[in-house]
Amino acid sequence: MNIFRTIKNAWTRKNVQPVTTPLTQPEPAPDPYKPLTDDERKVWFEDILKKMNCEFTIKKWKEGWEYNTVYQGGKFRILLPNNSPYIELRFPIFFTTEQERINEVRITCNDMMNKYRSTKFSYIIDYEKRKVHVNADTDNVLVPMAADEKLIINDMLTRNFEYRREFNERFNILLKEPAIDLEDPEQSYANRKTEMYMLRSVEMIADGQELGNYENIPDSPNLGDIVCELLGIQDYHWQTMRIDKGEGKTSVINNPIDIELYRVLDAVIGKDKNGRTIMENKRVVITVGFTTTEEPHKNQTLQIILTDEDDDDVTIYVRISLVLLPTSLDRQRSASSLGNQPVVHSFLLGYDRVQGNRRDQEFIYMWNEAHDKLAEGDYSKLTPDEMLIADCSEANLARMLYWGRKFFLNKRYYEAITYLKNAFETLKTKFHTLSDKWREHFFELTYYLGFSYAQLQQYKLAYYYLDALQPLNKINYTMEFLNVLVLSNDFRAMPFIQRLNVDLQGILNNLDEEDEKRPNIEALAQFVRFHQGVLLLKWGEIDEAEKIFKELINTAEFGDACIKQLAEIQRQRRLAAEEKADEEYLDNLLNEHIDKYADRLVDSLASSLANSPADKKTDANADKKTEKDCNKNTDKKTDDESKEDTPEKHP
Q1: What digits encode the pLDDT tens for the residues 583-594?
Q2: Helix axes 102-115, 149-176, angle to 10 degrees
């Protein structure tokens, strides 16, 4: 019976069509070991760091992405290679000791690598400061996209603190053991390297090629340096400084030395309740009164306005607006003179959250990374920063180049100048001995200086550096030089533009349409043409400027800029028309009032003349004279009539 029921049910299911209802199929659970794309891995890894409350910065790496993060007070560098399920973790400079302890450091590194096979412990030597720094690198760590990936990353970072603790313990044990009286070849080499570095520095100073004051560059510039660099004022006498932080928070400094050495960023930087460096005041106004040696009787006022710009895990960025107010007028200084015009500068300053020798440590790490790659013969793996310092044999010079370029790329132009000038002065004195590669570095350094000074509105200094690069005929050098000429309204700008127009047009006529150089030459020609329009607009030649902007309005590079310039031309014409209409209206109104006033004046004069006593006396005399004349005429007439009545007598 059961067999028949089973057959019947099977036959029924086979011949009866089931009623289907649209149901939403549940999404399959993600496969934790499924390969992710590079973008997906980037988003996934950043989400892990956020869950761990790690603040981080991201930098594009040649083979992937580089993350610099701070976790529990330790700085880590994490690399996400492209097309790879692995990550690389680096714990840079977690241990530092004296150069004389290099043997103990080497033994400790070997012991640690024997115990922890997955981690590489390496050390680098700072020959200048006689220090040894130890790094820990963990490569090829597989982190699956599972529920516990946060725990895996957390365990990786925490494990490095264990490495540091154990390294310290092993190192201290070695220090207590009796020293072996054997010559250490590496220590001897390090000592000789340090001695050669010191001798080379002395030799360069003796030759007149001073390295510059590298070590005393402050992390945060003081007021005296800013005034000297941007305003060109050196012989000044500080009087008083008032710091207004808002909400009634005001302080006054009267000591000239304290004013000179005051670090302007200290006015906005503070600490939160957790001890983390923050921008405590979003806007601060510093007012400084001073006099100069040239004009000791003139009290001048300088205002420094600090505003919040941006920040990240490493740096707080502050916008500095420097305003030198005009002085009072006298016989020697009119209202239109240059001395009576306000001087304004605006630039970006950065405040490193970690002060002290952080910059030195970062440079040393990059310096040794570059030389390690060179020693391995793999020049292709060098980053642009490492390429700049890899061929440099002097650590101080390399440090100036490294930080100068880094600040330049971060648009911290004032700080970049501080480092780049030292490197420029060092290389300038031995330019004739530089190799072709180093001459290229020198020219690029000169371009950085000119560009930075242009951003700080120091056009004379910008012209000095950029003018030296014109014989090279590089497009970016020429563009920035032209930009400086136009911005400073230099009299040489228009002849330079006209010469460039002729040269570029000749080059374009000789190039084929498919030539790979043509797009760059056309871009430069458009750049020159646009700046010619800007210069014409400054000079008031609106019609000629309008033709140029309409010519370039359809270009991808200058289309939006031309629209803005054309809008400015329309605004100027509208203002000119309104001003002309106002002048005509005022002229008509003035003429009308003059006519009415003249009529009233004539009437008033006539009335006053008619009512004056002298006029009345004159009128009375005139009346009497008239009456007398009338009587005389009457008497004469009567006599004549009487003569007519009397007979004529004849002789």
Answers
A1: 888 888 888 778
A2: 140
